[in-house]
Design a protein that fits this description.
The protein is an alpha/beta fold. It has two domains: about 1-125, Rossmann fold (3-Layer(aba) Sandwich); about 135-255, Orthogonal Bundle (Arc Repressor Mutant, subunit A). It has helices at about 5-20, 35-45, 60-70, 85-90, 105-120, 150-160, 165-175, 180-190, 195-210, 215-225, 230-240, 245-250; strands at about 1-5, 30, 50, 75-80, 95-100. Helix 2 (about 35-45) packs parallel to helix 3, helix 7 (about 165-175) crosses helix 8 (about 180-190) and helix 10 (about 215-225) crosses helix 11. The chain is globular, with a radius of gyration of 19 Å.
Length: about 260
């Protein structure tokens, strides 16, 4: 998980990782410490790369809280301040790296590979989160014949579904007109942008309901991008003809 209240820096770190590591990754972005803590409760990252000075909760407090809750054990601190007391506190918390901005790409990648190589060999054998064989979950978002612009749009949604995103958000990100992006979804996926975003959110919520036993429905609604529990209920009723609780009760026994 990458945490920085400057979106361009968070996206820059994301780009470095995606362009240079040769192992599969699942990366979440957060733009303040509190949001990062909430996401980590469900995501349980192997590594958190966090800025040190942020509003809501600073990087050191985030590290301390995540360690106390046993949500992550590996941390890299990034900072624009060469301040000894920051580094001293980070070392006391067991942070594996303290990098100054602008970030040295090779130093960052070296730390990331150190974490990856330290993971248990059995890590790759962790049970896949396989959802029930329902028609609704059969949408394939990885079609090779999709245009590059559509692939980028879908990838952006998959990485940012927990945020308040819109066609205008995609337009700003991809530098394409919203109407053109909308036409891509309709032509190639037979879904609108809104229905595809809803699909990704419901699918992620279903995973959390079945495989994260200690998270409440209210917490899940926030984690997948709905600002209240009612919206998650309405989405499940509309698409799966059941409430989130009914879905969990019905299908968790089959896992």
């Amino acid at each position: 998980m990458i945490v920085d209240d400057e979106e361009n820096i968070a996206n820059g770190i994301l780009s470095i990782i995606e362009s240079n590591v040769d192992f599969p990754t699942s990366i979440h972005l957060a733009y303040d410490g509190q949001q990062a803590f909430d996401i980590a409760a469900a995501f349980k990252p192997d590594l958190v790369i966090t800025d040190i000075r942020m509003h809501m909760m600073n990087g050191l407090d985030l590290v301390k809280n995540l360690k106390e809750k046993e949500l992550c054990n590996n941390f890299i601190i990034i900072s624009g301040y060469d301040k000894f007391t920051y580094a001293q506190t980070a070392i006391r918390f067991g942070v594996i790296g303290y990098l100054l901005k602008p970030i040295d790409k090779q130093e960052l990648l070296s730390l990331i590979y150190n974490v990856y190589n330290s993971l248990p060999q059995t890590y790759s054998l962790i049970k896949d989160r396989i959802l029930p064989d329902l028609e609704y979950f059969s949408v394939n978002l990885d079609e090779e014949n999709y245009p590059t612009s559509l692939k980028k749009a879908i990838l952006y949604i998959e990485k940012n579904y927990m945020n308040d995103i819109s066609l205008q958000t995609l337009s700003d990100e991809l530098l394409l007109h919203p109407c053109y992006i909308s036409s891509l979804f309709g032509k190639f996926t037979e879904n609108s942008f809104k229905s595809l975003l809803e699909y990704i959110r419901i699918k992620k919520a279903a995973e959390l309901l079945l495989f994260e036993k200690d998270i409440t429905v209210s917490e899940i609604s926030y984690l997948v991008g709905y600002n209240n529990e009612r919206r998650l209920y309405d989405a499940f009723q509309k698409r799966l003809n059941c409430t989130p609780g009914d879905f969990k009760n019905l299908y968790s026994t089959a896992q």
